User: What shape does this take?
Amino acid sequence: MEKGSHQHHQQEGHHQESRHDGQQQESHQQENYRQCSQAPMEGLGLMGTPMPYSDATTAHGGLRIPSGCAISGIIDRTGKRMSGERIIQSISVMHDRSNGLGGGFAAYGIYPEYKEFYAFHIFYNNLSAKRECEEFLEAHFDIINLSKIPTRKVKTITDEPLIWRYFVEPLQTKLADSQLNEREFVMRCSFKINTSIQGAYIFSSGKDMGVFKAIGFPEDVGRFYKLEEYKGYSFTAHGRYPTNTPGWWGGAHPFALLDFSVVHNGEISSYDANRRTIEMYGYKCTLLTDTEVITYIIDYLHRRKGLNGYEIAAVIAAPFWQTIERMPREEREKHEYLRNVFASLLITGPFSILVGFEGGLMALNDRLKLRSMVVGEKGSMVYMASEEAAIRVIEPDLDKVWSPRGGEPVIVGLDGGESEWL
Amino acid sequence: MRRVYVNEEWCLGCHLCEYYCAFAATNGTDMARALRDTKINARIKIEENDQISFAVSCRHCTEPYCVKGCLTGALTIADGIILIDREKCIGCYTCILSCPYGAISPSEDGAVQKCELCARTAGEAPMCVKGCPNEAIVFEERG
Amino acid sequence: MAVNYLYPEYEVARNYDRCIACRVCERQCANEVHEYLPDANKMTCDDSKCVNCHRCVSLCPTRALKIVRSGNTYKENANWSRKTIDELYKQAGTGGVLLSSMGNPEDYPVYFDKLLLNASQVTNPSIDPLREPMETTVFLGAKPQDIRRDNFGRLLTDIPPHLKLSMPVMFSAMSYGSISYNAHESLARASEALGIFYNTGEGGLHEDFYKYGKNTIVQVASGRFGVHKDYLNSGAAIEIKMGQGAKPGIGGHLPGHKIVGDVSRTRMIPEGSDAISPAPHHDIYSIEDLRQLVFSLKEASNYTKPVIVKIAAVHNVSAIASGIARSGADIVAIDGFRGGTGAAPTRIRDNVGIPVELALASVDKQLRDEGIRDNVSIVVGGGIRSSADVIKAVALGADCVYIGTAALMALGCHLCRSCHGGKCNWGIATQVPKLTKRLNPNIGFKRLVNLMTAWQHEIKEMMGGMGINSIESLKGNRLMLRGVGLNEKELEILGVKYAGE
Assistant: This one.
């Protein structure tokens, strides 16, 4: 029975695969063109293996990349789905906050027909990476559907890797063997692929959501992925201004783990303290970006430790002791507890982040509010962005607009929805 | 009123207070030049035996026998400090005999001498206090 | 009379133009270096007795004294230094084991001096500690494994016993006996004023100091001197001393002449008897024995105090620390070979143990690799000289540091390294009443508070420069460090990059 259904979907997938064959050729041509005109870039290897970054190697390799950025997010609390067009408009206003070295989106509620399955978005450097990765996927998952992710040619977006999408479900036998819960199993598989299959990189792995990212200005990335054709109840967007040239698509934001995704603006000074702590809990930081570490911390605190969004904020952007001392006893004890137990997960230095998750969105600033972040409301819509202009451009007439204080999370869920984040 | 008090617990018997006192009386700026090859006669004196040591100087009593007994009015109280007018002093030593602490002594010029809280340092701690290495002599207000 | 091969190492240089013969030098030198010649109204001195402690220099009111290195020289060469020659002559003359005090003075690398700190520029703002809160509070102890909630979903906030400090510095173990009552009082009062901790060392706790219990760490060492139930319950934490950086692998010996009066009572041994701490704990010959002692102490203190296990930094320190982290201990303290002592055999002090920076880096890494870093906090001592060393130790992975020598220096110690003589002119490492009264705790505690306050300011400045506003974000943050003058292996062990990388 299981086998049968697998076969059936595989066929469906084949159909889609062929439909996109032409496009695949297109991108190949483009790649050839680049190689002619920009020969010196050739060695960069856009899908280069993420660099390992353990203590043993810090002294030799591994370059951390600080970056500044723009972020924006939208959610409709009624759960009504909107087109991706609006988020592109919003982020494009903050063009000057990016430098064309990375842009991306996370979209929630976009795969209702496959919402039972994990949607893997994967970059491949080459066909052999794809082959190897697919072998791994087939050994561990039922592949319900696979296809190239549709893209259109955009002049400023070049050097694209092969970009594929798979809807999958863990093989019950493998899952049982692993003695892990399903989400942990999926996460470990995706880590395994990202760290051990050279040239393959899973950049989105949640259900009914997807990440779309590339090197380029975010509005161009949106057009490239035809984001306007997707409909979701919530979107986040990111424009990147790295102070070093990474030249790798996987390094763009959002950074996602299962269904939750992070876009981030800032440069954290606690990076190595956080990294070395979170790696102890089994996470492997391969990208050397702040966002990756923040994402893992949030995943650890939420999924593994069961903290809600407010408690997570009290850990990573903890109130100052002088504030805690003035709190009523119960509050004070809670905050002291969280700061003590998770001391090494406090994040210092400037950041503003948007966390997208199933059924909601969370905005958070660093404890000193060293990065801008504005929240606006209009009816059931909530907007969050680095600049008010990015909100006004899509909703000039807001009911309410404010700038959340440092360390004060703004968490928005769907009406009537229950979330562990709230 | 702030007075000089002695914590004998911390007195090391180092005698530095005597030298600072003597130096203060010279109005000099360099102790080496002021005191080299001299024999000092300080207004504060260390009393000691093997076990204990402490500095003794004028207590600036509120009802002082010395002032009461002074024949010429050379000893007076001003703002709680017992001062001596060396012009008026005839060197009769009545004060020396009447002081229960032995804090008044003869000086080279015939007049008596005693601690006047380094009146010239105007409110600052006297030199013996400043020079004490162990806070055994302090200048403070006590009830 | 036998020929004395030794020539004084130091000379007292007296400027007779400035000497007023006040005799303070004579009165203050317990070594009887100075002498007054009444006939000549002149001071003279015997250089051979001088240990260069600077008591006379500091107290001379006319600055007429200084101590200079003796100009006399042996026919030294690269192999036979003056120190080596002197030591040989001394042993040939006496037949004894050489004794020394304080930490290893030899020319081994000081890794703290080869590590440089980062500061923010452009991409990340530095933070001004005068304008923004800058937090140095740390907790020491095991972190709970599980987050628990009540029926209403509220977090249960009970955690294993821990210490809360206003800054990541504590005064390390120095026993009452090895140092004076007044030194202990200074440390205790300063700890209370600062919100940090001092450590009794292996000498028990004087009854007068029980009132500082909430800022006291009580030590249990191999001699068990002064240990009883009330003692264990009087402090905020209990430390098991397995080893000491200055003399790893050997015990302690407080000579009988220091076991007088209160010292003997506090140690619970007869007056005049030598206090000999065995090299090992004779009930701990393996890691499982340690576990038993850890839990015995927890049992005795009703599981209300964190237990610290202190070890000397030796070759396989990371494996040992890993064992300790699994022994039920809450804190592991690592003492490097620069750490001081009241007395140690010179050969041990100068040749045994490893630098604490390397020990710290490898312990922190080992515990993280094994996923047990949360089981214990790491405290390092032995060579912390300044706030910069504190910052660097924290960035390498320490939760907190111990300072011993630096604290004693605040109290007047001039590093003469003669503690074992028992005639400390500064009233610190002595029990002679005439000498101990030289350390007035009213002054001593203020100087300690000053030193720590100054360090705290500097720590905040350096953190602010790095864009870090709470010390926990610096812990193990090795990217904030860069090495200079280090080889590949050293960089690898320290886990830092080379400057410019």
The CA atoms of residues 27 and 134 of chain B lie 24 Å apart. Chains B and A do not touch (no CB pair under 8 Å). Residues 1-57+123-134 of chain B form one domain.
